[in-house]
Amino acid sequence: MTGDRAGNYRILHEADLRDYLAGLPDIRKLVGGEPASWPVTEVGDGNLNLVFIVKGARGGIAVKQALPYVRLVGESWPLPLSRAHYEYLALSRQAQLASGLVPAVLHHDDKLALTVMELLEPHIIMRKGLVAGTRYPRFASDVTTFMARTLFFTSDLALSAAEKKEGIAAFAGNHALCKITEDLIFTDPYRIAEQNRWTAPYLDGLAAALREDMELHVAISRLKLKFMASPEALLHGDLHTGSIMVTESQTRVIDPEFAFYGPIGFDVGAVLANLLMAYFASAGHERAPGERAAFEAWVLETVEQVWNEFARKFLDLWRGGAAGDAYPVALFAGEQGATRLEAERQAYMQRLFTDAVGFAAAKIIRRIFGLAHNIDFELIEDPRMRATSEARAVRLARAMMVEAGALPAVADITGAARKLRNWQPKLAAG
Ligand code: SR1
Ligand code: MG
């Protein structure tokens, strides 16, 4: 049963929430002390939901409640509460598959579209750390473990056909969240859409060029079709650096409310895109030339590690005795079979790489011309500098989307990014 159909939903304000939580014996014990003394603070800065932090004598918790509309836009844009149900389902599956890399769920209420989770402290949203120029030594290893395990073990390489189809069915109702992605990532940035925005007037010419670029329109439409029609594995669905909380020694992937069965490259591409945006935005955050060079080098190294480590871990799982109904063992017997299957694995990974690069490009372009932007660029105060960083990112993104053949390996992408670091785009006059 999902929140939409269940009734009894109400938006909880601080005092209501305190009373509600006080009525949950396990939560009350965990937080500790008298509920009347618990500070409850709404801290959500995402686009969709309410997020509260509640602290008590013994500990703290985080509480997420879905609103019946898009927070960023308001009540004029209704959105199903059922997304909280899919997020809970995804978090539960991810906890089984990638233990320790997602927050522990302590309580879920479908009717209130509310989930109580462990409080991640002193973790911060990774995007904020990247803006500050902080390096995260565990990140590449943790995020690739998360992706390799959640994507491999929910794919046809690991599941029977029946299990896989039941998985697809369990998430099929999350189509309103998919529709957000289909519109905001794969359609709107390439047409006149009311909610689009960009760093005007500097990027006016680039925005207009995007609307005329038929090669790009074909490429983005192919990617959209792949997103809509390739239920390869259970995706996180919104795996940007705002959906990851970090310390220098820990990584937690949060917020899988966009989860559904889709193309594996979409999650991998999201991580690559957000690192590349952090790289291009970095020039706009430096106070002295070269000040962030070590950080920028780390970001590009991390881009390479994310792809290489993901591919290695995914392949290891596959080689380690995949029990899924795809590639039946009986068809690959003997030395010849083993050799042919290994060649097939390599071809599969090359295809995943091409998908990931295309999706990464789409994710960069949407953050510069679509509705939802990110603080990597938004916090660059000087609009001309911001537009310069954004134009560099768009130049790489276009090449990634329509000239994929010229960038066949991850080192080609990072090499191209490095070359664009000081490129001076022609901007419209301010
Ligand atoms: C209207 S929601 C805008 C964006 O916020 C989420 O984080 C997703 O990325 C979505 O596209
Ligand atoms: Mg989110």
**Known CATH architecture of the largest domain:** Alpha-Beta Complex
Structural classification: alpha+beta
- In terms of DSSP E residues, the strand content is 5-15%
Question: Terminal Cα separation, in Å?
Answer: 53 Å
| Sequence of secondary-structure elements | HHHEEEEEHEEEHHHHHHEEEEHHHHHH
If helices are DSSP runs of H or I spanning 4 or more residues, what is the number of helices? Answer: 16
Outline type: globular
**CATH fold assignment of the largest domain:** Aminoglycoside 3'-phosphotransferase, Chain: A, domain 2
Tally of DSSP β-strands: 12
Throw out a few tags for this protein:
single chain; 430 residues; alpha+beta; Phosphorylase Kinase, domain 1; Aminoglycoside 3'-phosphotransferase, Chain: A, domain 2; five-stranded antiparallel β-sheet; three-stranded antiparallel β-sheet; 12 strands; 51% helix; globular; binds 5-S-methyl-5-thio-alpha-D-ribofuranose; binds magnesium ion
Concise summary:
The chain is of the alpha+beta class and 430 residues long. 51% of the residues lie in helices and 11% in strands. The protein has two domains: 2-118, Phosphorylase Kinase, domain 1 (2-Layer Sandwich), CATH 3.30.200.20; 124-420, Aminoglycoside 3'-phosphotransferase, Chain: A, domain 2, CATH 3.90.1200.
Write a structural description.
There is one protein chain. This protein is α+β, with helices and mostly antiparallel strands. It has two domains: 2-118, 2-Layer Sandwich (Phosphorylase Kinase, domain 1); 124-420, Aminoglycoside 3'-phosphotransferase, Chain: A, domain 2 (Alpha-Beta Complex), CATH 3.90.1200.10. It has helices at residues 3-6, 14-22, 25-31, 83-97, 126-131, 139-152, 161-171, 175-184, 204-212, 214-229, 264-285, 293-319, 334-369, 375-378, 383-402, 410-420; strands spanning 40-42, 49-55, 60-66, 69-70, 74-78, 105-109, 114-118, 124-125, 233-235, 244-246, 251-253, 260-262. The strands form four sheets. A five-stranded antiparallel β-sheet has the order 1-2-3-7-6, sandwiched between helices. A three-stranded antiparallel β-sheet has the order 8-10-11. The longest helix is centred in the last third of the chain and has 36 residues, at 334-369. It is globular, with a radius of gyration of 22 Å. Magnesium ion binds at residues 46, 238, 243, 255. Magnesium ion binds next to loops.
